[in-house]
Amino acid sequence: xxxxxxxxxxxxxxxxxxxxxxxxxxxxxxxxxxxxxxxxxxxxxxxxxxxxxxxxxxxxxxxxxxxxxxxxxxxxxxxxxxxxxxxxxxxxxxxxxxxxxxxxxxxxxxxxxxxxxx
Amino acid sequence: xxxxxxxxxxxxxxxxxxxxxxxxxxxxxxxxxxxxxxxxxxxxxxxxxxxxxxxxxxxxxxxxxxxxxxxxxxxxxxxxxxxxxxxxxxxxxxxxxxxxxxxxxxxxxxxxxxxxxxxxxxxxxxxxxxxxxxxxxxxxxxxxxxxxxxxxxxxxxxxxxxxxxxxxxxxxxxxxxxxxxxxxxxxxxxxxxxxxxxxxxxxxxxxxxxxxxxxxxxxxxxxxxxxxxxxxxxxxxxxxxxxxxxxxxxxxxxxxxxxxxxxxxxxxxxxxxxxxxxxxxxxxxxxxxxxxxxxxxxxxxxxxxxxxxxxxxxxxxxxxxxxxxxxxxxxxxxxxxxxxxxxxxxxxxxxxxxxxxxxxxxxxxxxxxxxxxxxxxxxxxxxxxxxxxxxxxxxxxxxxxxxxxxxxxxxxxxxxxxxxxxxxxxxxxxxxxxxxxxxxxxxxxxxxxxxxxxxxxxxxxxxxxxxxxxxxxxxxxxxx
Lengths: 118, 480
Hints:
By secondary structure, chain A is an alpha/beta fold. Chain A contains 5 helices and 7 strands; from the N terminus they run E-H-E-H-E-E-E-H-E-H-E-H. Chain A has helices at 13-25, 36-44, 63-72, 90-95, 108-117; strands at residues 5-9, 29-33, 51-55, 57-58, 61-62, 78-83, 100-103. Chain B is rod-shaped, with a radius of gyration of 42 Å.
């Protein structure tokens, strides 16, 4: 059984690494990108990820650009938005094409549960 | 003076009427009898008939006088004039080729006309005018104008001779009479800015009233003039509420904005702390370092606390008035209140006892955050009182009936003073020092509860101050 692959995009480098460590420990094949640009490049390089976890707002774009790239590459990756922004509502995140919304600091138990279902 | 003249003068003097003799060529007054002098003693000394006449009458007089032939029937006998309430008739007489006009007062105009005039003036006044006679107690109405009929919905005929107690509730009638008696006793007019009158036909009205003492001989009267201010007060009340709502909305909006801003800046570093902490924790677990594990658990707990405080502030400050009504359990509501008041309770040392276990499962159809905001508000007020009193407890009790649930928040206060009780729900009313409170808490909370068809009331509970929010369990029932 192949490991599920996750692409994690966050311009807060330390946070991205910490989250990636958590996910790897939980058994996922986790890749990190520290910018929107880098993330899009990875998606375009036809690596098909099971799940893309992305920060909502980053320098030079945000979750929306990531989601659009996924769509353009007709990837069927599930999208999880992780944000520190309290103003975001799950509904509005889903409208732009994400599947789940997590508020930072992320509750890892919940996140891992969700990942299992994807 | 020749004897005849003296005699004539005496005859005129004995008349029970006012008599004038006037020279017909220049209308100068040549004689006034005693009655005339007595009746018009206060007046200027009329030296000419023309002083009594209007321009119209003057020309009428000239006309008639010129037609007057020496001997024939006298057209002037048709001339009459009025002065004040007195009516005079004229006739002409000639003495030694000199003609004189004799004016005698023929009638005193009835004073009824002037009474009618006064009454119609009073009737056309915009204020309700009434007069009560206080030779008896209670005072009885002797006058009631048209506007009073409209204002109180009572006809003059049914009011005259009756007292306030015949129409108004006893407590109101007593207030009216007390004010009347004070006015009469002090012989000083008073102005009542706002009083409630419950009309048997129109229901509750608010009026402002001037009361004036009138003393006529032995009799004492109370003259009152009232204006209906019901609509005005209602309008001002609405305006005040609207102002409070707008003020609160903008205040909340700015708090929300601040919270969102802070949250965004704080949540990322918080997530990093959390992440590193988890690493430490996992290492400690591997090494079975119980001490470090405990520390990391504490860190984790406090990271959650910070994030829940910010989250809570945001929840508390958001405008929930457009949220949909949802079914929420008492447990969900109370847990949220607990979370949002935990920090304040911890900081102040005020212990909050939540008594709701029996009703945890009960479901209420509500906008959860409006109810939570109202409850948190009451709890915060109660904490404030506890701190002031140095008696550190607050009770939060949930009770339930078949279709209602109530939340009672009790603090160590010993009740709210009578004189401010009717103001505590007014927007902007506060007993706190300037800058300490907006004075909006209770009024906004009450309006949020009322949007649910519920009530927010004050009551004394076992000698302690308490506020109770009562909500219908479902909205259809309250709307019906």
